[in-house]
Automatic annotation (TrEMBL):
Domain of life: Bacteria
Annotated TM spans: 59-78
Sorted UniProt keywords: Membrane, Transmembrane, Transmembrane helix
Organism in which the protein naturally occurs: Myxococcus fulvus
Protein name: Lipoprotein
Entry annotated with the keyword Membrane: yes
Length: 97
């Protein structure tokens, strides 16, 4: 007996979380790009050339901008998330025992 092929109705029953888990698993299990032994040196030479540091900086720039915005939001004077000295409670020897 051959295995049953899933119908369209079966596919509609898969939840959004199931789809998200499937996409995540596919991304985590995917292999990296590769080149044959003949082409590999040329591929690496094309990546690690004199423009590598500039391209690396451009790649990391969005991450640095988002990190800067998070720090700005957390440590801003109008944010309640900012730790303040007045909000910290100091314990004396009598309170801690």
């Amino acid at each position: 007996m051959a295995p049953r092929v899933p119908s369209l109705r079966d596919m509609e029953r898969i939840s959004g979380w199931g789809r998200a888990a499937g996409v995540l698993a596919t991304g985590l299990l995917a292999t990296g790009a590769w080149a044959c032994d003949t082409c590999r040196p040329r591929v690496e030479a094309g990546i690690y050339n004199e423009h590598f540091l500039g391209r690396l900086a451009l790649t990391l720039m969005p991450l640095l901008v988002v990190l800067w915005l998070v720090v700005l939001i957390v440590w801003s004077p109008w944010s309640d998330a900012r730790p303040r000295a007045s909000s910290r409670r100091s314990f004396t020897q009598e309170e801690s025992s």
